[in-house]
Specification:
Structural class: mainly beta
Distance between the termini: 59 Å
Radius of gyration: 30 Å
Strand order of the largest sheet: 5-6-7-8
Order of helices and strands: EEEEHEEEE
CATH topology of the largest domain: N-terminal domain of TfIIb
Oligomer: single chain
Number of strands: 8
CATH class of the largest domain: Mainly Beta
Strand content: 25-35%
Number of helices: 1
Length: 105
């Protein structure tokens, strides 16, 4: 059961029998029931942040011409950017000038 303010209808929270002020209008009244609230806090998984300069060293190199400097080599990686039934998107980073682009296939 929930207690409501007789004046404005706001929810009254307090221990049973205590004189409680309405949080909305300030009218004092006795709480007839005791309200208890609980909450669960989700555990946040820690993620490692990778610097993009460091990431280039761990990605494989492939033959891909840079649209900026025309270098023939680039680092590459894939990422699911659309629905699960769509193919992954390929990303490239030029070995020479660090320009990044994606393959739109």
């Amino acid at each position: 059961m929930v207690d409501f303010c007789k004046n404005c209808g706001a929810i009254i929270m307090g221990s049973k029998g205590d004189e409680v002020d309405c949080p909305s209008c300030g009218q004092a009244q006795k709480a007839k029931t005791e309200m208890k609230f609980s909450e669960k806090v989700a555990k946040v998984e820690e993620k490692e942040i990778v610097d993009t300069n460091e990431a280039a060293e761990i990605n494989p190199i492939t033959d891909a011409e840079c649209p900026e400097c025309k270098s023939p080599k680039a680092y590459y990686w894939t990422k699911q950017t659309r629905a699960g039934d769509e193919p992954e998107t390929q990303f490239f980073k030029c070995v020479e000038c660090a320009h990044q682009w994606r393959d739109y296939r």
